[in-house]
Task: structure prediction
Amino acid sequence: MSTPPTPPQPTDTSAEARARRALADAVREIEHHVAAAGWDAPVRVFALVRTQSALDAEPGLADQLTPDVLAAARADDQHLTSIEQEGLPAAEDLEQLLGGLTWPPTVDGAAVTVERVVLPPGVEEDLPADPDQALAALLAHPQRQDVRLAVGVLRNGPAWCAVRTRAHDSDDAVGQGPDLVPGLVEAVRATLA
Result:
């Protein structure tokens, strides 16, 4: 999967600014792609590669990309293509999965999508200590919010996050920013070390 061309952006054309915009575009596109499959989905992991570098290494890739993506890659060497990883290793939880991932140098970044249940501040303190009872209380709580997190990080530093709630499940209601989920950003960043 690859990001469509980006509309005109502010005048900062430095490689760093273009990389941040390319990452934001890729994370938005990943989140939109995953959202199309609906809720209650498993964790999904994506490698991020600079499209033009991938085309230089594998010219046949051009046959799999749309003309607008090819034009965007020619126009901006920071343009990213996301490649969903299949056959992920078995893991008990997200932390264990990410802790077992490493990427070759040809991968410029990584992204992950995961669904979580969140509660308002302070509510978690009242949950039972027993994990099974706590999970049951969490799932039954009237103020719970189901969220989908999409987090991407580039090897050279920039990060971008997108957050969608089930209660406001529309493309125009997705929250975005570089540090919305700092713990997950750092966990994804660690896979690139």
User: Anything to note?
Assistant: The chain has one domain: 15-190.
